[in-house]
Design the sequence.
């Protein structure tokens, strides 16, 4: 469709100063609207990617990429599982753990929590909780010491600090001469951590794995083995491969299973936000339609003369499609350039605005972060640019078709 003649005339129409300045204004508005829409899409999706990355890292800092658990709840030969896991080329860390629900009591304060038993020397291989210690350190946990490290919010709910005692009440019951009694054990708080996720700061307490096993009557066994992988998105496949090499029945889980609804909600939110912001580009594309319709009306005599000189309807369509595509291409290109520059430097821009106007966009007390995160994905950039350009192209079809239907005799009747 596009030949040098169409390109030449379309480019002249795009660059020429129109007799109708309103048409020029609408054309510039269309270009500006597409540019702003693309910038908004790139920046907003980059910020959402940044928040998602922050949340994912905080979750993985406490969970692990994947885990293999015994269906019976007690993995006896866990040393073999650890050895096999470390032999896998995609596993970069493995750690045994013991988990069980319990109730924590301090005076009149009571709270439920997940008691996670860990080996302090293994835990840094699969999580970064040791990097978020407010008081104490993981190495302070010793087998037989019945010590505990709690999350900051859990410590606040229980009203405890380092050195205080906490009574742990487990679901298992003990039969005594006076009847069935719940199992109780006193632990000493020796550390407090804060990872920035209420689910963990409020609901997890760490103890030594041997103390947790004794508390849950598991002997020398553990609940399972947690894994850290080279590529976290291959967690399901790697866990399945490891389970095949182990003898017995096991339950596999990965970081997406444990928070499936949450991550699905984040993905849906990003998708819907992209669609909503794409409407900005669509509105700008409608301006292209109105611009080209007015140009076609303004250039009726030019179109008629071109047709009398032998230009076909297809040639006329090519002229106006190229003119509209030029507006869309320039707007999209400027939008991509501006969006990438803003997304890559968003933290510095926000910091400058906060300092200039003495405002604070992100409250660390609420979000546990003090800056607006941005994570630019180039696949998002190309998708946004392609969608904006496609919408601009589609917007040119009707006005171009309308121009091609011009009848020379009708157009030149009153000239």
Sequence:
């Amino acid at each position: 469709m596009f030949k040098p003649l169409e390109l030449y005339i379309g480019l002249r129409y795009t660059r020429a100063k129109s007799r109708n300045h309103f048409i020029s204004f609408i054309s510039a508005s269309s270009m500006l609207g597409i540019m702003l829409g693309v910038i908004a899409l790139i920046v907003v999706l980059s910020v959402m990617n940044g928040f998602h990355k922050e949340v994912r890292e905080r979750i993985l800092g406490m969970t692990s990429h994947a885990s293999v658990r015994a269906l019976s709840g007690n993995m006896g030969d866990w040393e073999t599982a650890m050895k096999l896991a470390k032999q896998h080329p995609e596993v970069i860390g493995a750690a045994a753990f013991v988990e069980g629900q319990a109730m924590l009591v301090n005076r009149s304060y009571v709270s439920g929590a997940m008691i996670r038993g860990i080996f302090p020397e293994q835990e840094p291989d699969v999580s970064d909780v040791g990097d978020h210690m407010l008081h104490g350190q993981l190495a302070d946990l010793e087998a037989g010491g019945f010590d505990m490290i709690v999350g900051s919010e859990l410590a606040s709910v229980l009203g405890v600090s380092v050195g205080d005692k906490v009574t742990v009440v487990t679901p298992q019951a003990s039969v005594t001469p006076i009847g069935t009694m719940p199992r109780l054990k006193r632990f000493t708080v020796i550390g407090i951590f804060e990872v920035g996720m209420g689910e963990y700061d409020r609901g997890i307490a760490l103890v030594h794995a041997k103390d947790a096993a004794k508390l849950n009557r598991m002997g020398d066994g553990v609940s399972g083995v947690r894994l850290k992988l080279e590529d976290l998105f291959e967690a399901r496949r790697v866990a399945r491969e490891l389970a095949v090499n182990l003898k017995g029945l096991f339950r596999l889980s990965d970081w997406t299973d444990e928070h499936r609804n949450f991550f699905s909600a984040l993905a849906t939110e990003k998708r819907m936000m992209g669609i909503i912001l794409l409407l900005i580009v669509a509105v700008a594309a409608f301006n292209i339609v109105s611009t080209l319709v007015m140009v076609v009306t303004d250039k009726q005599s030019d179109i008629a003369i071109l047709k009398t000189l032998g230009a076909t309807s297809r040639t006329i369509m090519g002229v106006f499609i190229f003119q509209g595509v030029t507006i869309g291409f320039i707007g999209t290109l400027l939008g991509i350039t501006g969006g990438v520059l803003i997304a890559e430097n968003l933290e510095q821009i926000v910091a400058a605005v906060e300092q200039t106007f003495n405002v604070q966009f992100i409250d660390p007390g609420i979000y546990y972060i003090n800056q607006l995160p941005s994570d630019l994905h180039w696949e998002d950039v190309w998708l946004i640019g392609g969608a904006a350009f496609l919408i601009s192209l589609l917007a040119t079809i009707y006005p171009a078709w309308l121009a091609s239907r011009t009848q020379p005799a009708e157009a030149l009747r009153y000239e």
About this structure: The chain has a mean pLDDT of 83. The first strand starts at residue 66 and ends at 70. The chain has two domains: 4-58+262-412, 64-258.
